[in-house]
Amino acid sequence: MISLAGRDILHAWPRFVLTGMGLGLLIGVTLTMAGVYRGMVDDARALLRNSGADIWVVQKDTQGPYAESSSIHDDIYRSILGQPGVAKAANVTYLTMQVRHGESDVRAMVVGFEPGQPGEPPFLVAGRQANRSHYEAVADVKTGFALGETIRIRRHDYVVVGMTQRMVSSGGDPMVFIPLKDAQEAQFLKDNEAIRNDRARTAANPALNRPAVPGLLEAIQASQSSNHNVNAVLVQVQAGQSPAVVAEPIRRWLHLQTYTQVEMEEILVAKLIATSAKQIGMFLVILAIVSAAVVAFIIYTMTLGKIREIAVLKLIGTRNRTIASMILQQAMGLGLIGFVVGKIAATIWAPIFPKYVLLEPGDAVRGFVLVLVICALASTLAIRAALRVDPATAIGG
Questions:
Q1: pTM of this prediction?
Q2: pLDDT 10s digits, 224-279
Q3: 125 part of a folded domain
Q4: Total structural domains in the chain?
Q5: DSSP state of 306
Q6: Are 175 and 151 in contact (CB under 8 A)?
Q7: 300 assigned to some structural domain
Q8: Which structural domain range is residue 30 located in?
């Protein structure tokens, strides 16, 4: 009994293997796209885990500090500490910007934190924490910085004293941690020229030169040269306390917006990266259709090349089910080779991608099943062509 798949592998194995490798690269791209989405979700969850917070307190009617802009006074943490069930409360700022490194710029999220409080990087892979009040930084290894290097953020230089890992924003940008006061200045404080221009405008404004409230002009000028705002307050609750219960009085009495870890994850995953998830989903559908078309075309052309062999099988009385099963085996063999090549390729090139690519075993299993289903469906065209072959073809010319 002639085996169509065995015949191709034994007598035309270079074509069969090369075809499987081409299909494998397509499957590898599909697995990588799924890994990109998984990596985006894992980045968002890692951001929340690494912050060390149970509750995020932000500006009222905002979804900050990651999804929207948020600005609150930096002394509000004292009132939060006085709420029942609160163990720790610390100010934090977040600012995505270009960090100057030598002659080039690195896009990073600059985090202002207080040593020993929520928001501090939870672990280091090298060096020490930035425990001085100014001009020290802890950077994620993804930034490419090294211990002892000097980086520039706005107007000041910072020495990298520690290195951490997997500390990224929800968009995948690596984090750079600097002292809170420095971060407030970098984010909120105007440069000297802007302050002088604002003071000149204030002095030239008659309404502000003769304020109805004594001391208003001095207050305006003071606010231009200093800042006391942060993006959020990170709260840790006492052991045994429910974050949702602790958050309720903070929201009610302090007139601020609060989010628990579950609520913040919902914002990041379901809202912030929702559009990217839909886009990746469309790519996966398109790649699945293209893969099915490629397999169908390959199996169909291979089947047409064996019309005489199929006719001989039908002439000696081989059942249609047997012929169909052999074509199906050929498609499954091609899909198996393609999946193995695709899985290896995705594993090799995943670390090279700028964004984190998370290849989960569950996705690989689902991908393998999907490949087999696609190959089975794609083989139906070739099976129909084979079953329509006239046995007389084996005798005729």
A1: 0.79
A2: 445 689 999 999 999 999 999 999 999 999 999 999 999 999 998 888 888 888 88
A3: no
A4: 1
A5: T
A6: no
A7: yes
A8: 4-44+275-394
